Amino acid sequence: MKKKKIHKIRESSAEYGSSEIVLYKASDGRTELEVNLKGETLWLSLNQIASLFGRDKSVISRHLSNIFKTNELERNSTVAFFATVQNESGRVVERQVEYFNLDAIISVGYRVNSKRGTQFRIWATNVLREHLVKGYTVNNRRLKELNQAIKLIADFAETRNLSGNEATALLNVVKDYSYALDLLDDYDHQRVKTADLSRIKAIPVTSDEARRIIGTLRGQFKAGDLFGREKDGSLPSSLENIMQTFDRRELYPSIEEKAANLLYFLVKNHHFVDGNKRIGAALFLWFLEKNKSLYRSDGSKRIPDNALVAITLMMAESDPKDKNILISVVVNLINKKQ
Predict the structure, then answer these.
(1) Of 86, 107, 133, which residue sits at a domain end?
(2) Dihedral sign of CA atoms 167, 140, 185, 193 in order
(3) Percentage of the residues of the chain whose pLDDT score is greater than 90
(4) Could you give the CA distance from residue 225 to residue 218 in angstroms, rounded to a whole number?
(5) Average per-residue pLDDT in the chain?
(6) Which of 7, 165, 188, 280 is the most buried (most CB within 10 A)?
(7) Which of 305, 331, 318 minimizes the C-alpha distance to 169?
(8) How many structural domains does the chain have?
């Protein structure tokens, strides 16, 4: 049996946002297409349109030329070039391929095969409706998370008599996290370019490393014997938890998620008689450093020291039910673009 060639379309220009592939199968069962859903419309290449309507590529090309020539549709708003990875004679190559949106596809359909065109339009309308509902749901979830985060930060500020530096740090956390509002707006207008999380293989912090760092901190802070003294030998569990897998999948797949959960576990699990917050923050920074994620390309820290102090204090005094939103705050702060 001949192996089907797979054409993968990767994200291209920010103008159309990110894409997903939806499978279209004609009612006769003979035509199957991988349709690109991007920027609130559907896109097909010239070859795919020819396959959809059962016509030669030159016929489709001629109709498209006439559609643009007579100004029935504007070329700039209905045509886009996407980077497409395809198999050519056993070689995998990437080419910029011309794609046409739903308006252009339907216009061609009316000219060459109105029945097929109508079937595709009905299918496309349902797909786009589902896509919009999904987008609305995602936006609502993001907005809810953002409101929870800001409320959590505000409540923390109210319950503490903050010094000037602490208040400033807390304001910075709010400011840095609120960039998600801009992401929401970008998502609504299909401009969003999702900031990729670092999914490289993580290097864990070992128990021996952690204890050496604690010894260094004890000298640095001129702390007493109680600083960093382990209560019950449970420290390794927090260090190992972030590396857990289930069914061969990592529970915390990115460096950012591992780091945020490490900070939370170390601060909340009270492994030490004294120094839980300082040790948690130090091991969090060391984990990021080991995994080349502590600094941005310009040399600045991903989380400024005063913001780390604020978020560590919040974690220490937080209700366990707020864990997920605190993790979300830290992940977003680590991954915030400048």
Answers:
(1) 133
(2) positive
(3) 30
(4) 8
(5) 77
(6) 280
(7) 305
(8) 2
